[in-house]
Automatic annotation (TrEMBL):
It comes from Streptomyces apricus. Residues 50-407 form the Leucine-binding protein domain. This is Amino acid ABC transporter substrate-binding protein. The keyword Cytoplasm does not apply. Signal peptide: none annotated. Coiled coil: none annotated. Gene3D superfamilies: 3.40.50.2300. Pfam families: Peripla_BP_6 (PF13458).
Length: 432
């Protein structure tokens, strides 16, 4: 099930929103991988032979350049640092990357190249706008480790292990009988910690945007909020009118189902009309070091930006694992939470590969490690990630939350300890 969006907090599909679906699931009595990789098995890496992994990224896509490259960059930085230390038991990790262009056709081509031609042991930190090749990955029993659940693939297919886990059966259908589930922890947290009572939800008059907005509204109402809905035209959005209305109606919080450019324009409009809110809440994809530039014309709204997620703030350099990430990514021009999660995905693969000592690093061995059902935290970078296969979705779930607030003079400032910001919240169904 998904910490989904740490309450379905992500956003988007198509040209406007990228709905980050967060998941959970796991293995049966014996992983299917035990029975695979025979005739066409991946050779075990031996001696100093490199261990080959693949990274599929929608580096160029309709959403725009650099929108999806964070996980790839974080994973590559981890493997670079790992190789500098000698790799996995003396074997370097060889990274093969593929840009699928944000299309299903391109994604299938990338999967074919990496899985069938390059014979990678695993995919790592997949970040694909249209993961059309997921069924092929599952059929080949290639472990896909730490991917971003932009679509429903990580709650649909076996051998796919999303960065946030999954509780779904993963039997070829999304979630449970086609329904995914999301919690209300984000809304509960702002209500409990800051006394928020009124929330505005801004969306486009576009199907994906409107559908996500309805999910947010449902979660807010379940937590007792008074909800203000604002819908703007996708082609000619009047953000000033929406900002004026949410100001008039006294919104404490603003959630959105719009793209990054639209968010910046909404913030500008809020500053123009003098709409001050407790929090303009965004998601992990926008948890980046470029906030000052992205929201250059909206200083008040910019300093009311809050982000929520399931991983430790990349600014928390007092934490040893975060400090290692920052040291290993010094060469990157910017930093982001998605980079940190890509770094964690690469660490996860490395731990799986190390478990294969003495037997050789194969797809089957790596998959066995992933399918154990043991929670994984990447040395504290992630909230515990679990994979189970529950026959029925839980009605409630104890869920923890990572929260940070942007401040111009300090960057993203963590709001409490993510390992303690936990609560039992209802799980609400929605269509993927």
């Amino acid at each position: 099930m998904r910490r989904r969006a740490r309450a379905a907090e992500a956003a988007a599909v198509g040209l406007s929103v990228l709905l980050l679906l967060l998941g959970t699931a796991c293995g049966s009595r014996l992983p299917e991988s035990d029975f695979g990789d025979r005739a066409g098995r991946t050779p075990a890496a031996r001696g100093t032979e490199p261990i080959r992994v693949g990274i599929v990224t929608s580096a160029t896509s309709p959403v725009g350049g650099d929108a999806f490259t964070g996980p790839r960059d974080g994973a590559k930085a981890y493997f670079d640092a790992l190789n500098a230390r000698g790799g996995v038991d003396g074997r370097k990790v060889e990274v093969r990357t593929c840009d699928d262009g944000g299309s299903g056709v391109g994604n299938n081509e990338c999967v074919h190249r990496l899985v069938d031609e390059d014979r990678v042991v695993a995919l790592v930190a997949t970040t694909a706008l249209d993961y059309a090749g997921a069924p092929r990955v599952a059929r080949a029993r290639v472990p896909d480790i730490g991917g971003q659940p932009i679509g429903a693939a990580y709650d649909t297919y076996p051998h796919l292990y999303g960065i946030y886990g999954s509780l779904a059966p993963r039997n070829g259908k999304p979630g449970w009988d086609g329904k995914l589930y999301g919690g209300t922890e984000v809304y509960r947290w702002f209500k409990r910690e800051h006394g928020a009572r009124t929330a505005a939800v801004v969306s486009y008059n576009q199907s994906a945007s409107a559908a996500y907005a309805r999910l947010v509204v449902r979660g807010l109402k379940a937590e007792g909020y008074e909800v203000v809905t604002e819908q703007v035209d996708f082609a000619l959005p009047n953000f000033r009118a929406a900002a004026a209305d949410l100001k008039e109606r006294g919104a404490d919080l603003v959630f959105d189902a719009i793209d990054g450019h639209g968010n910046a324009r909404l913030c500008e409009a809020m500053d123009d009309v003098g709409a001050e809110v407790l929090a303009k809440v965004t998601n992990v994809q926008n948890w980046t070091s470029t906030v000052r530039e992205d929201y250059a014309d909206a200083p008040r709204c910019r300093n009311a930006l809050w982000a929520t997620g399931a991983s430790r703030n990349y600014e928390d350099v007092g934490h040893g694992a975060v400090r290692e990430f920052r040291d290993g990514t010094k060469s990157l021009r910017t930093h982001s939470q998605w980079q940190l999660e890509g770094w964690a995905a690469a660490m996860w693969f490395t731990d799986a590969a190390r478990s294969c000592a003495g037997t050789g690093v194969t797809r089957a061995c790596v998959d066995r490690f992933m399918a154990t059902g043991e929670p994984y935290t990447a040395r504290g970078l992630l909230l515990p990630v679990r994979f189970e296969r529950l026959p029925e979705p839980p009605r409630t779930r104890r869920t923890c939350l990572s929260v940070a607030r942007w401040e111009d003079d300090r960057g993203w400032v963590s709001q409490g300890d993510m390992d303690r910001a936990c609560q039992d919240v209802p799980q609400l169904p929605y269509d993927p």
